[in-house]
Design brief:
single chain, alpha/beta, Rossmann fold, 5-stranded parallel beta sheet, 47% helix, globular, CPT, P-loop_NTPase
Length: 186
Amino acid sequence: MGKGKIILLNGVSSSGKSTLARELVNQLDGYFHLSIDDYDGFIEKAENRETGHLIPVPTEFFYHRTIAMFSDLGVNVIADQILHDVSTTKDCFTVLQRYPVFFVGVHCPPPVLQQRESQRGDRPIGLAEIQLNFIHQQRHLYHLEVNTYKDTIANCAKQIQNALQEHHPLVEWAIAEEYTQAIKDV
């Protein structure tokens, strides 16, 4: 059995990653959506934050290895992630560097991000703009970049689908040199 393909959507909070992932699931056969937000909820249920009984490992540690586990079992995954700091980025690149990953940068302008945060009501206003200080600094590793403000979600998904067909078959994300440089650049 071959490894399952991974579409890794990276962008700030409220950039449209989860909505885009759901659209991709509708457009692509055999893909499943695995969101870091859902994973955070799962970890939160295992913890008791009132008493400080917390899992002493970052959520992303489990999330990246779960993506790899699904791929090892031949399951195609659309992962929406926020590579928000050096340790998260390093862990993601280390765990998935020999997997068939299609790395997509998901962009949206700051004023629209603030508007989306305000409409959602479940995120602090300005969080996405703060995240922009780190996120997308590894742009040279993206296979494709989309903008959920300039294009509709359906068009962004179609761009990804078309790019996947152009890069078919997806090969391992062999990024040893690029990874080393990306970590140095952040």
